[in-house]
Amino acid sequence: MLLRRVSQHVKTQNWFAVAIDFFIVIAGILIAFQITSWNEARKDSKRELQIIDRLQSEFTMLENETEEYIEFVESTKPIIAEFEQQIINYPEDANLELMKRFFETAFSLPRPAGQSDTYQQLIASGDMNVLDNQTLLAELVNHASLTDYFLHVNQATREWSRSYVVPLVRLRSLLNVLPLEEAVSSSGTKADLIVAINLYKEVFEDQLNILKAHKESFAELNKMLIDEKHEKNL
Questions:
Q1: What is the pTM of this model?
Q2: Among the residues of the chain, which ranges form H helices?
Q3: pLDDT at residue 46, rounded to an integer
Q4: Which domain holds residue 129?
Q5: Residue 69 maps to a domain
Q6: Could you tell me the keywords of this UniProt record (predicted)?
């Protein structure tokens, strides 16, 4: 219909009408492009908000998990000190139940929390550009690097210290099958056990410091995600 009208106007050399027709066509195309652009922007914004929401949910869970680890580690510090005194004073006041209590609770190092599944999916799919806040993007990358570092340090520390805490590992196994005196004497010298427990205490404190630093990183990132989500919802 419009094309026929343009042809008629050209034949009659009504150039003003031709100009108006072309203006209508161009305006229509621009409006169509704008509507498409708005729809795409709305979809992108909705998707970005969904990703931010998932990230915030996962990082909150990981932060809470790390907080639980910290509480567990803090709660077992007195048990480690109690066990250390048992070894130092042995055989005086030796207490089988107190020694077993150490191995059942405090002889366990929780690992740092891992990466967010949503973040890993964004990296794998190359969709990090969905997030338009560059500061948030930088913080996500920094946190991921920090997490990788903590996991690496944790694994390296475990491997390095494994051979040094052999007397403790041996004692843990023997306490369940031998009398206390025989279990202790078969685990190594008293000096070996004291060295092992002191090394374990240092590793334990290092692990606690890692967990606390990790929790701070989680808290900072979660604050940024909550602020970003609030801003997107305005």
A1: 0.78
A2: 2-11, 15-89, 96-101, 117-125, 134-162, 166-174, 180-185, 190-233
A3: 81
A4: 44-233
A5: yes
A6: Membrane, Transmembrane, Transmembrane helix
